[in-house]
Each structure stands twice: as C-alpha cells, then as structure tokens.
C-alpha cells in the first residue's frame, strides 16, 4: 500500500494536529485514531483527539481511550490542521460549520466526497487501521504494544474478526506483526465480544423480537423507548445489524435505530455480491459493498417500505 508523499510531508512538517473521526465510533475509528495519535506524539508532535460521542464502555480496554475530547462544539474556527479518519466529510464527524487551516482525509469508504486538502482514500483496504499501520511504518515510527492493540482492534472489527471477504493474506500478515508486537488476540476478542452488560443483552433480545423477514430481507429495529426501558444507548446496538445475516437464506439485514421522532438511522448488511452501498447512496448515505447505512425521516412503516421497494427495484 502506497502512502501519498504529500501526506507524509504534511505529517512531518506540522507539529500540532486535530484528529477526528465519525460520530457513533466503532473499533476501526477509535483504534486508528488512537494509534495515529500515539505514533505522532512519540516523535514530539502534539495531538488533540476528538469524537462527538463518548467512547462506548466496551471499548475502554483500548489503551489511551481517555484521550478523546468532545469539546469541539465550543469553537467555530480551528487554527490546527485537521486529520479526518475513517470518514470523509465534516458532517459525518459532527464538525459541520467549523473551519480548519488545512485538512487531510484518511479513509477506506467508497462514498465520494471532495473534502480535504489531502485525500488518501483506499476503498480496497480492509480497515482504516491497515492504512494507519502502513502510514506509521512509512514515517519510521516504532509500533509499541499500545499502538499494536489499537490497530489490531481496528482491523479485527472491520474484518469481522478476520471472517469477512476483506480478510486477505496481507491483512493476516499485518495482524501477525501486531501480535508479535504485543497485541493479544484472545484478550482483544474477549473484550470485544464477551463483556456485554445485562442491559445491552436485554436490548438485543428486544431487537430480535422485532424480526420481520420479507423477500429474504431481515428487518429489525430499536426505538428510543427501548433504550429508555433498558438504560442503554445507541452505542449498545453495535453489531445488531449483522446478526440476522447469520440465517442462510437472508440476503440483506436491515436494522432501523430511532434517532428522533420519525427519524431513523438505517444500517444495511449483505452477503456475497449484493452491494448495499448502492442502495444506501440512493438515500444519500454510503459505506461498503456489504456494509452501508443512511438516515431517513418518516414513520417506521414508511421507511421500511421505502427500503423494500428500493431493493426490489
């Protein structure tokens, strides 16, 4: 993987960076951001790590997770250069309306955007974490145990713990090097998948009880009332969209999460050659071939029928 020379020069020449990632962050967003921040600070740079939303509790095993701040909304202009990770628009990071002196985008999503003075977008990369691995190596920075844990976690999440088609020999070689550096696969997997709270598990039961199958499309949803009843939040629904895809006859899994009255976040998962990113794009969303999403307003029945009609067409 070739790192743009312009990006390397930018990182070498600047001394202070504002690193941001997308709202509702998952492992790739968090791990990539933390790893890059640690790497730059190890060579004397300063970084500010930002995410609009808090780090979910089940990611608190990530070294340095406390470094994230949520205070960007207090300002309207930043003199610091921006590094935008795992997304490629300011609104996806909750930074719309803010101005930055200079900006660099590092992302692996196919969604098109022209934001960024420097754009390094690799749609074929299994995870942004893989890109950050090569970037750190190209900068000549040593990968520490803490950086390795963050990068391994980033890659594990976006490859379905090395189960998805994005898992290549190259990805496994990167993972092997991170293990040799100190990332413990068993510890990371346990932290990711075996530390659920009872409240989160109860929310999952509620979501699965909404299951509806229409023309090999599995539909589930979570409402704000469900969050209230279980004492959970949006971050607790991570991976809910993937579970119905376990059924062998399901082509697409669609998970609807209520954001506000008649406002929904839709997460799509598919298998094989079914490109849900194309579907999401029709609703002004985006993502990957087998994992994409969008937001839509309307009643639950309306948004479900809109999706099913689009899929059939």
If strands are numbered along the chain, what order do they take across the biggest sheet?
3-2-1-5-7-8
Strand content: 15-25%
Described by the principal axes of the CA atoms, the overall outline is: globular
What's the CATH class label of the largest domain? Answer: Alpha Beta
Q: How many DSSP E strands?
A: 14
Rg result: 19 Å
Give unreliable regions as ranges.
Answer: none
Write the topology of this structure.
Layout: H1 5-13, E1 16-21, H2 27-41, E2 46-50, E3 68-69, E4 77-78, E5 82-85, E6 99-100, E7 103-107, E8 118-121, H3 128-138, H4 145-158, H5 169-181, H6 185-193, H7 198-208, E9 212-214, E10 217-222, H8 224-230, E11 252-260, E12 263-270, H9 276-282, E13 286-287, E14 291-297, H10 300-312
Parallel strand pairs: 1-2, 1-5, 2-3, 4-6, 5-7, 7-8, 10-11
Antiparallel strand pairs: 9-10, 11-12, 12-14, 13-14
Helix pairs in contact: 2-3, 2-4, 3-4, 4-5
Structure characterization notes:
- With 313 residues, the chain is of the alpha/beta class.
- Helices cover 35% and strands 21% of the residues.
- The chain folds into 2 domains: 5-192, Alpha-Beta Complex (inorganic pyrophosphatase (n-terminal core)); 198-312, Diaminopimelate Epimerase, Chain A, domain 1 (Roll), CATH 3.10.310.30.
- Helix 2 runs parallel beside helix 3, helix 3 (128-138) packs antiparallel against helix 4 (145-158) and helix 4 packs antiparallel against helix 5.
Brief sketch in words of this structure:
This protein has 313 residues and is α/β, with parallel strands linked by helices. The protein has ten helices and 14 strands.
